[in-house]
Specification:
Blueprint: H1 42-71, H2 77-106, H3 108-125, H4 132-149, H5 165-194, H6 196-216, H7 227-232, H8 243-263, H9 269-276, E1 278-279, E2 281-282, E3 285-286, H10 295-316, H11 323-348, E4 353-354, H12 355-382, H13 389-411, H14 419-453
Parallel strand pairs: 1-4
Antiparallel strand pairs: 2-3
Helix pairs in contact: 1-2, 1-5, 1-6, 2-3, 2-4, 2-13, 3-4, 3-6, 5-6, 5-10, 5-12, 8-13, 8-14, 10-12, 11-12, 11-14, 12-13
């Protein structure tokens, strides 16, 4: 499969760079020159396959979590929504500590290995009801080491000036969504049909598979050093923090926090609405609730290649969209998706809406997601100071922590509002994030330009 962006983005008629050839003669960061896989370095395939299985375990468990708490543990909706939000928040808070530990002491490779092992143990613990809260805490702890250390290795796969680096995070995003697509189908079906613990066990197997792939593919990954090792070696010292850079990243993080308050409802209140407010009948068959959660990653896989082709054509024509503007457009699209749900819910009243409306919601929602989330992760990784890659990527996940916590709090309003009014509130949150991101665009452009001039 040839990905858009695998060749130079310099435009037609210009000479191809040395990085456009199938084989680069110069090794990068200790990785010997190898024939590319899917137009990208082999290491990228190893990284997204590893995260594909990690996402399989995460989304598989997430697809079951709210249903498990309300139907098996018999928790109230408000309490279940808060536990869901608190868990996802903690899973994205621990990476800020794990990123520092990886950069300064463990190194990214060891951090990924240790973190994945802890997460696998936590997923298997989910199969035992008395260990429920301990299992959630274990998964969150392992995630702290794993999550920032894996994608922060992507930049190190490319030599300076390699045009493929600009598209790497979008390709990576497709890979990890394969796991998100398969998880509700496999873990969700096992949980609903055969028992919740079978679904949780399948998620644990997926995490173990990801760890195995990472260990077997280590020769394709770049050699890296911790910051403390470099200082002790006397070769360099960590650079001073750029105050303006961190302030801008913090502002972007605030915008993403607001956006996540609406975005994360897909696995929470939207899932509850799919179970009670949607007619899931298809002839004589009832579509399982968890299957709708597979629509989002499936659409990510289908829509990313044409979107990448569109963005590349715009870049070749000199009309590329700046990251902040693209993120703002994505937030507006997600807001539009929630406007659709609000109108459908108001129209349905006390009855049920057709499942095709929910499918249309996921289509608009996913297009918006592709505009904002890979762009945000790529922005944080690209602006990362030297030897602080995992820490800066962890800062991106810290925004997800704050957003997930706010989503849990917003989710508690579900039982106190009409469904239509609630979805309208989510639309307003997404629109507010879009306005703030658009206002940040000049500052982000200035910092990005200064970094490129260095």
């Amino acid at each position: 499969m040839a990905w858009p962006g695998a060749t130079s983005a310099c435009g037609a008629g210009k000479a191809r760079t040395r990085y456009d050839r199938p084989r680069d003669i110069r090794p990068v960061n200790g990785v010997r020159a190898e024939r590319s896989w899917f137009g990208q370095p082999p290491g990228l395939t190893i990284l997204f396959l590893t995260n594909m299985w990690e996402q399989f375990s995460y989304f598989g468990m997430r697809a079951l979590l709210v249903y498990y708490m309300t139907r098996q543990l018999m928790l109230g909706q408000g309490q279940a929504s808060f536990v869901y939000g608190a868990y996802t928040a903690c899973a994205y808070f621990t990476p800020i500590v794990g990123g520092v530990v990886a950069d300064r002491w463990l190194g990214k490779r060891r951090a990924v290995t240790i973190g994945a092992s802890i997460m696998a143990a936590g997923h298997f613990m989910m199969a035992f009801e008395p260990l429920f809260y301990v299992a959630l805490a274990t998964i969150a702890l392992g995630n702290g080491l794993f999550l920032p250390s894996l994608p922060s290795q992507i930049n190190d796969l490319y030599a300076p000036g390699d045009p493929r680096r600009g598209w790497a995070y979008n390709v990576y995003y497709v890979g990890i969504n394969i796991g998100g697509f398969l998880a509700p189908l496999i873990c969700g079906t096992l949980g609903e049909v055969y028992g919740w613990h079978y679904g949780f066990g399948a998620a644990g197997i997926g995490m173990f598979a990801g760890l195995t792939i990472y260990l077997l593919g280590h020769r394709h990954l770049p050699v890296e050093h911790t910051a403390s090792a470099i200082v002790d070696d006397g070769r360099a010292s960590p650079p001073a923090n750029n105050r303006q850079l961190w302030l801008v990243l913090a502002a972007v993080g605030l915008c993403v926090t607001i956006f996540r308050g609406a975005y994360e409802q897909v696995g929470n209140t939207v899932a509850l609405w799919a179970g009670s407010g949607v007619d899931r009948g298809l002839g004589s068959v009832t579509i399982p609730m968890t299957w709708f959660q597979s629509l989002n990653p499936l659409l990510v896989m289908l829509l990313t290649p044409p979107l990448l082709a569109l963005w590349q054509r715009r870049a070749n024509a000199g009309r590329d969209t700046a990251p902040a503007r693209r993120m703002a457009q994505g937030a507006l699209l997600v807001g539009l998706a929630y406007v659709l749900l609000a109108l459908v819910a108001w129209q349905a009243g006390e009855g049920q809406a057709g499942w095709l409306w929910l499918a249309l919601f996921f289509l608009i929602f996913t297009i918006g997601e592709l505009f904002i989330l890979p762009s945000g992760l790529g922005l944080f990784a690209r602006l990362a100071p030297p030897r602080l890659g995992a820490t800066t990527v962890a800062a991106w996940y810290l925004t997800i922590f704050a957003g997930s916590l706010s989503a849990g709090l917003v989710g508690t309003l579900w039982s106190h509002m009409t469904h239509g009014s609630y979805f309208a509130l989510l639309a307003m949150l997404a629109a507010l994030a879009a306005v703030l991101l658009r206002l940040l665009d000049p500052a982000i452009r200035r910092i990005d330009r200064n970094n490129n001039d260095k």
